[in-house]
Amino acid sequence: MSTSRTDTPTAHPLTGLGWNPRVEHAFDSLSHASGHALYPARVSSSRRGGALVRLPGEAHADYAPALTRAAREDPSTAPCAGDWVAVRRSGDTWLVEAVLERSTSLVRQGVAKDSHDQVLAANVDAVLVCEAADQGPNVGRLERFLSLAWACGATPVVAVTKSELAGDRLPEVLELVRTVAAGADVYGVSAHTGDGLAELAPRFLPGTSWVLLGTSGAGKSSLVNSLAGQSLMDTGEIRQDKRGRHTTTHRQLLELPGGALVLDIPGVRRIDVPGDPEGVDRTFADVGELAGRCRFRDCSHGSEPGCAITAAVDEGELDSERLARWNRLRREAEWNSARGDQRVRAERKQRWKAAEREARANARLKRGR
């Protein structure tokens, strides 16, 4: 008598960390071209010169020499929390051989003289922007966070935290947030009372990767603990000046009991919008839609006749302060884009000079000098 058997595909050991066909293809392509035995891993946290990786068990890995050199030239290429990497053994040490191509990158525009960008998190599906109800909300800061989230290619979601502290003002606070967060879902939540968590929690699907973005003291750590139903992160006290203390001091990858992955990063007070204008355009989609109605394509939205934006401000349809913030962030994005182009040109010029010096040195050697 014969029996039939149905084979069930075995799940990849990194499936719970977000392993998917895109990552598998990128790793296989790199592995086949390498002379080393490589293993896939995801970066849980990173420090200068090394990273904590999940294989799926945790291990510390140093950077391979080639990766160290590349990161020295461009820090944005160094592994960061959320990255998928290829690692190999070197004696008793794990080495990060390469960073796989990122599907999304939450990038803070470089503010140093070299204008290199800082990658805050990689390969995230959604960005949870946390804005404390008792701290405003600060709509200008929120617009910057949203611009950053939209530019990275992930879905932004806004959590108005500490909702219990808003009292009767909560509906007004939520309405204000929704007016500047068009296209993003907004939730009022309280880690203290549990209000709103039942509505937000279903968004954290198994295998999805989230990053929490907000200032110190916005309640990110408390929110993660409430969503997890356990203490995964330390929480801190708010200072007398209402500014939060940095309870998160480095980026780390956390796994919620339901299977979602959360990247918590240190609180960020200053955000320079990326040079890519898409983030600002998505955040100010309402203003952009008005601009499309202007009579002239090159309208500067000042005193030109037929300016739909000026008319919207005069009629009370558009807040003049929101218009001013749109103009400010657009100029900032343009400046940062030009700054990045200038850095690329400078680096290219340095490579050309180095090549010329090497060519002259080789020519002298051939002449016997």
From TrEMBL:
Q: Where is the composition biased (Basic and acidic residues)?
A: 336-361
Cellular localisation: Cytoplasm
Q: Where does Zn(2+) bind?
A: C294, C299, H301, C307
Q: Which CDD domains match?
A: YjeQ_EngC (cd01854)
Q: Which domain of life is it from?
A: Bacteria
- What cofactor does this protein call for? Zn(2+)
Cofactor detail note:
Binds 1 zinc ion per subunit.
Major subcellular site: cytoplasm
Instruction: Name the enzyme's class.
Output: hydrolase
The Enzyme Commission number assigned here is 3.6.1.-
Region spans: Disordered = 336-369
Q: InterPro entries given for it?
A: P-loop_NTPase, Ribosome_biogen_GTPase_RsgA, RsgA_GTPase_dom
Instruction: Give residue ranges for domain EngC GTPase.
Output: 122-269
Under the heading Pfam families, the entry gives: RsgA_GTPase (PF03193)
Annotated binding of GTP, by residue: G214, T215, S216, G217, A218, G219, K220, S221, S222
* Keywords linked to the UniProt accession: Cytoplasm, GTP-binding, Hydrolase, Metal-binding, Nucleotide-binding, Ribosome biogenesis, RNA-binding, rRNA-binding, Zinc
PANTHER family annotated for this entry? Answer: SMALL RIBOSOMAL SUBUNIT BIOGENESIS GTPASE RSGA (PTHR32120)
Similarity field: Belongs to the TRAFAC class YlqF/YawG GTPase family. RsgA subfamily.
Q: What does this protein do?
A: One of several proteins that assist in the late maturation steps of the functional core of the 30S ribosomal subunit. Helps release RbfA from mature subunits. May play a role in the assembly of ribosomal proteins into the subunit. Circularly permuted GTPase that catalyzes slow GTP hydrolysis, GTPase activity is stimulated by the 30S ribosomal subunit.
What's the protein called, per UniProt? Small ribosomal subunit biogenesis GTPase RsgA
Instruction: State the organism of origin.
Output: Nocardiopsis tropica
